[in-house]
Amino acid sequence: MAVLRKSPPADALTSSAGTGRPPLPARLRRDWQLLAMTIPAVGLLVVFHYVPTLGNVIAFQDYSPYDGITGSPWVGLYNFQWLLSDPEFWTALRNTVTITAFQLVFYFPIPIMLAILLDSVLSRRLRLFIQGIVYMPHFFSWVLVVALFQQILGGAGLLAQTLRQAGHEPWNVMTDPDAFIVLVTAQSVWKDAGWGTIIFLAALAAINTNLYEAAAVDGASRWRRLWHITLPGLRPVILLLLILRLGDALNVGFEQFFLQRDAVGAEAAEVLDTFVYWRTLMTGAWSYGAAAGLFKGLVGLILIVVANKVAHRFGEQGIYKRS
Amino acid sequence: MSTRPVWQERPTVFGLTLKTVVLTLIVLAMVYPLYVVVLTSLSTAATVTEAGGLVTLPGELSLDAYRELFGGGVVTRAVLVSTGVTVVGTALSLGLTIFAAYGLSRPGSVLHRPLLFLFLLTFLFTPGMIPSYLIVRELGLIDSYWSLILPTAVSAFNLVVMRAFFMSIPGEVLDSARIDGASDFRILWRIVLPMSKGVTAVIGLFYAVGYWNAFFNAVLYINDNSKWPLQLILRQYVQQGMNLVPNQRAVDTAAGYALPPNLAIKMAIIVVALVPVLLIYPFVQRHFTKGVIIGAVKG
């Protein structure tokens, strides 16, 4: 989000150019209303984001709610050592990374292809109609999506029903650990691929049509135009989203896995977030859970910073500007 | 309504057919499951039995399943809880977000950069489940509906979208009002908000859908199942397949009331969770395409 970019030219009242800033009391008199408007939201942010962020120090403690943060003993890196020697943690980490990698290949390109396909629909009304339909599932909850998939693919679902009536063995996709990664990806595609086209459609609309025309006049075929004009036009957005996805590599979506973990088994469906939930909230091992959460947060932070560096290297903007 | 540019070649019959088939399949994949669910929820026991499960072809229809759900009981209560949380939460979130977005929309104002930075930093790091849970517990919000609202009340993303929109309003308009002596509250209420109906509607939808769909916060913070929102009911009775009716069976049959099939009731719970989203969606959808969101995402 390049919101921190150079601010637009400030108007006379807010300008500090040339004359230097007015003294603080004068600025406060001018801006107190703006501050008063911002403070409530900032307050919530501090209480529910920054205080818990600091609360992560319990990862270095043997925290117990009775003693509180000040009374609980410090244990250094013990929780992290425990974490790294915990096979269940490695299962969760492996599943998370595998799912991210799988979805990078089988989910990520779909909104791009879908956007190009939608963009090629010439009738505006038809296109808006289809867009309206494919955006919709984005607004369904994961419980709803999982329940719908269960009705279609589950043991008592439509697929099993049809197979049974045709005299075949029913196949319960929803509880098959081997099919799980495909299943969750299919669910993500169904729910979010349509919504994901929005940003690509905007980028497509921004491509100068003169380029297409000139290329066509030069005899470039439809596919060559796609390759040499459309895809380069989408490049910044694709890179931006890739970065965001990489920075989010350890976040595969919580509820989706939480909901299906029991049916499929932890071996295939445990991801880092569900690991934290089952290993700590269920057992009260707060510090251990905080350590796992902190590990995930720090790796995510490193990933996003590195991905941004790479983007800058490619001459792209990334999500924040080089400072 | 073809608006094909003159330089573009006509599509081949094969290409056109392929495109039509693919698009039709995509639309069907979205719509067909919903159709089956809605139809089953409206079917009588006989139709469900005959279909051997989900109903794909309309048979005899009835509203029994919905009568059962809204006859008071678990689902009725959950709908009330979810509606309350959604209405209160959305109003609070929209208010906070509009105020903060406007408060941060004038670069150079006191504390502008550090406060904005506080919001932007949340994109890079989330506090994690355990510390978040502990703070909610410390504040005594476990089993309080506020635990479903306050922790997610302000979304930095929505705030940034809204702020970007406010900043795109021409400065001259606001300046003239300020020179006339209007306060910032007045400018926001009288000038900025009326110009921002589209973005307000979209952000309002985002918040409302977020509250209506909120699931995991309720799993974490609401232990008392009489306070469960609809999504938890959906999980327990539909995804986990617990039966809603049996404990009421004696009463119902005694009243000579034909029992709707369990499957229809389950599908009806899905529909109840679905309907609010489907109702609001068309009104807000047209704003999506207007670049309200994209402008901010691309920064």
Alpha carbon gyration radius of chain B = 25 Å
Low-pLDDT runs of chain A: 1-18
CATH architectural label of the largest domain in chain A: Orthogonal Bundle
Radius of gyration of chain A: 25 Å
Which assembly state applies to the chains in this document? heterodimer
Shape descriptor of chain B reads globular
Instruction: Please trace the helix and strand order of chain A, writing H or E for each element.
Output: HHHHHHHHHHHHHHH
Q: What is the 3D shape of chain A?
A: globular
By DSSP (H or I, 4+ residues per run), the number of helices of chain B equals: 15
The percentage of residues in β strands of chain B lies in under 5%
End-to-end span of chain B in angstroms? Answer: 34 Å
Fill in the CATH topology of the domain at 74-242 in chain B.
Answer: MetI-like fold
Sequence of secondary-structure elements of chain B:
HHHHHHHHHHHHHHH
Q: DSSP helix count of chain A?
A: 15
End-to-end span of chain A in angstroms? 14 Å
User: At the fourth CATH level, what is the homologous superfamily of the largest domain in chain A?
Assistant: MetI-like
β-strand number of chain A: 0
Show the largest interface: A-B, 115 and 108 residues
Main β-sheet of chain A, in a few words? none
Structural overview:
The complex is a heterodimer of chains A (about 325) and B (about 300). Chain A has about 325 residues and is an all-alpha fold. In chain A, about 70% of the residues lie in helices and about 0% in strands. The longest helix of chain A has about 30 residues, at about 25-55. Chain A is globular and about 75 Å long. The two termini of chain A are about 15 Å apart. Residues about 1-20 of chain A have low confidence and may be disordered. Chain B is mainly alpha-helical and about 300 residues long. Chain B is about 65% helix and about 0% strand. In chain B, helix 1 (about 15-40) packs across helix 14 (about 260-290) and helix 7 packs antiparallel against helix 10 (about 195-215). The two termini of chain B are about 35 Å apart. Chains A and B meet through helix 1, helix 6, helix 7, helix 8 and helix 9 of A and helix 1, helix 4, helix 5, helix 6 and helix 7 of B.
